[in-house]
Amino acid sequence: MTFDIKVFNNISEEGLKQFDDSLYTINQTQNPDALLLRSKKLHDMTFSEHTIAISRAGAGTNNIPVDRCTKDGIVVFNTPGANANAVKELVLANLLLSARPILKSAQWVQTITDDNVEEIVEAEKKSFVGTELEGKKLGVIGLGAIGAMVANDAYRLGMEVMGYDPYVSVDTAWNISRRVKRVTDLDELLSTSDYISLHVPLMEKTHHLISTEELKKMAPEAVLLNFSRGELVDNNAVLQALADEEIAGYITDFAEKSLLGHEKITVLPHLGASTEEAEINCARMSVRTLKNYLETGNIKRSVNFPTVEMSFNTEFRLAVFHENVPNMIGAISNIIADAKYNIDNLSNRSRGDVAYTLIDLDHVTEDQAQELAEELKSLSHVIRVRHIKNLQRKDY
Ligand SMILES: NC(=O)c1ccc[n+]([C@@H]2O[C@H](COP(=O)([O-])OP(=O)(O)OC[C@H]3O[C@@H](n4cnc5c(N)ncnc54)[C@H](O)[C@@H]3O)[C@@H](O)[C@H]2O)c1
Ligand SMILES: O=C(O)CC[C@@H](O)C(=O)O
């Protein structure tokens, strides 16, 4: 048995080499078992019936039709936090670059043709006076892996930092310095910040999170930074706000034609996660997560199915994806009991409208496990069933 993985985008070899040749092939079939990708857009893609998982080597999963995958029992994974430091460093670099005309002044020095360079620079440096970050106010919207790091390090740079995140997870909340002021009113953050940095995922609810109304609340000297997703910000509204001097600048990692050539807009080519370290971290984590799921059925770091992890000691395991409705465990157990098999271990978790059940069985053959899987598939509310052979067990 082998799993074929379809790889899109530039995934670090450090991750790909974790796929051992005895069990995995890469890009060998039209019907891959799993997809591994970075920013490739999958919304228009029809998935093969064989495809059971999609692993995003990165944080954002807005390039994947997650709801459709959930309905089809395709598990979508991401790599939480694996590129957070890279993004944080780029945000801090851009805060510093926007406080002082560093790039502009460096470019100007290169244009000097006279021999008395020292005299010229001393005379002209008055044109390149900047400001300091110390004492300035930074508002961070979204205090997850990246936002928390940006908030903490900006505080260490001497900034006054406030953060807004009504949905922050308990784990992340622990990482946020108590010096970061938590606000529950977005308007307070918008109207009092010198810099505003966005670190929320793109979803229906966050599309154009920053538009005309929000820009009007910002201070005329405020700079907006967007290293999250282009669609979080209404670009036309930003162009208007800059023309009306309602804000002072926009820095974005998401290029769009209308933003180019504007002296108050800095556009980067989606570079947030482009460091050697982040690319390796994301590739390693995404491959590890995918292998774990393909080989054991254990689900960790999924954005659409619950985390279910159970040590796999039996010969076979059944993995049942089903709707989160009453009596599913009863119905599943009845089928197994009627077939006279003994359940060695069982774990079930739900997430929203769906649930996932792992059932471990010993003393069954591959054919019997497959037959059981087929029977379970015919139950109402069941979305998908896998039967997984324990590759670590040599005694059958
Ligand atoms: N530029 C890049 O290359 C790059 C790299 C990594 C991540 N990203 C983007 O950054 C986003 C954040 O990444 P992360 O790793 O910090 O993710 P994360 O999931 O750890 O954090 C996101 C945070 O946003 C919060 N949030 C959700 N909706 C919100 C709302 N309406 N208002 C305020 N907070 C809200 C969540 O509670 C969570 O704490 C990703 O979704 C991705 O789009 C971009
Ligand atoms: O893969 C990349 O270069 C970007 C990843 C980034 O957008 C993310 O959401 O993690």
UniProtKB/TrEMBL annotation:
Q: In UniProt terms, what function does this protein have?
A: Catalyzes the reversible oxidation of 3-phospho-D-glycerate to 3-phosphonooxypyruvate, the first step of the phosphorylated L-serine biosynthesis pathway. Also catalyzes the reversible oxidation of 2-hydroxyglutarate to 2-oxoglutarate.
Query: What is the protein name for this chain?
Result: D-3-phosphoglycerate dehydrogenase
Q: Which family does it belong to?
A: Belongs to the D-isomer specific 2-hydroxyacid dehydrogenase family.
Q: What is its EC number?
A: 1.1.1.399, 1.1.1.95
PROSITE patterns under this entry? ACT, D_2_HYDROXYACID_DH_1
> Can you give the residue ranges of the ACT domain?
317-390
Q: Which UniProt keywords apply?
A: NAD, Oxidoreductase
